[in-house]
Amino acid sequence: MNTSAPTNTSNIDLAAALADAEQRYEAANPRSAERHRAAAAHLPGGNTRAVMYYPPFPVAMVRGEGCRLWDMDGHAYTDFVSEYGAGLYGHSDPVIRETLEATLRDGWVLGAPNAYEARLAAALCERFPALERVRFCNSGTEANIMAVSTARAVTGRTRILVFREAYHGGVLTFAHGGSELNIPYDYVFADYNDIDGTVAAIRANAGELAAVVVEPMLGGGGCIPATREFLVALRQETEKAGALLVFDEVITSRLAPHGLHGEHGVFPDLVTMGKYLGGGCSFGMFGGKAGIMDRFDPASPHAFSHGGTFNNNVLSMSAGLAGLTRVLTPEASRRMNGLGDQLRDRLNDLFGKHGVGGIVTGFGSVMNVHFVSGPVTTPAQLEGQDRRLFQLFQLEMILRGQYITSRGMLALSLPFGQQEIDGFADAFDDFLRTHRSVLPRPVGGG
Q1: Same domain, yes or no, for 215 and 282?
Q2: Which residues lie closer than 8 Å to 56 by C-beta, 6 or more apart?
Q3: Does pLDDT of 176 surpass 60?
Q4: Domain count across the chain
């Protein structure tokens, strides 16, 4: 896009640089601005999904193809938002499109078991080694609620250990101490990747602890990968305490052919997944050990009741099955995640080249740009970043035709190739060069 060049920033401060970017952004996107103003009449803030809002207003998209998006003002972008991981297949995969078209011809609100759900369940259990039985639902949030509630019911205990800055859904969010909307479970908090502190917390609450819930890479907390030693410690200590270990792989299951629990060889009692596994349709799943999940067998005495009108909706079931078995092969997964590793390395090299204090964290095809000097192993090391840096970065990259999130998170999709990696690296290089004077310096650097 880049319809107008940024002001020379060599002699201005961050506030002036951001004001300049906002002015150019607003001038370039009048139709998105008008849509946002009109939407506010019926949607609080013109929005029904908080993560999609950013000031001064978000660009509104009208079309997608492959890994490209087009907005209401006609600008084209490379899509690095990728629906926060749910857009793994891109916007027009032919296998998924043909599957959905065929499914629609046969009707889509059947109110009965259908031809796809058992096959998708089998494919998931074959792909991800910690899954012996699964139940479907409609979102990652719902999957995590069900997993936590299951742990409480199975163990007869109430406390749930979570990690500061973790996100497990709209009512299980723990950034900045948690949300007023959170489900009022009895939470115990620990610090991510802190083995000693977490082990101490598990032992101190052992008699009342139902579960430890953890992402093998902290997603919303900054794309910080867990060390294998940390995950092994969680597995050992939960077993000693009689608590369940729950891996939230809603984001991370895409980062290796068999998920991150398969990559690390650490197997939890329950796993939650969602996002891309519905092939672009609404999807959630919780599953794990047969001895736990068989409590949901409705033919068994005292079974847990688990309903949900759209749990087995035919669009999610058919698209999810086609995507997992025919598109996201292990080879395709390795290629996409390899491109992500390459991009992350290149961006980190560019921080060094320009003498800017920053680091890109992540694993495979999902990563996060931070304006702090690394390394980063826990969210506490990200505190104190000036939010205006992320606002400037997002607007400037959008103006360069790179669609990114407001928190600096990037996610690749299967249609990505070397051209898209090179294009983003070039745009990032230009951003750092143009704005070096207002960006932080490396710790100990000049």
Answers
A1: yes
A2: 22, 25, 26, 33
A3: yes
A4: 2
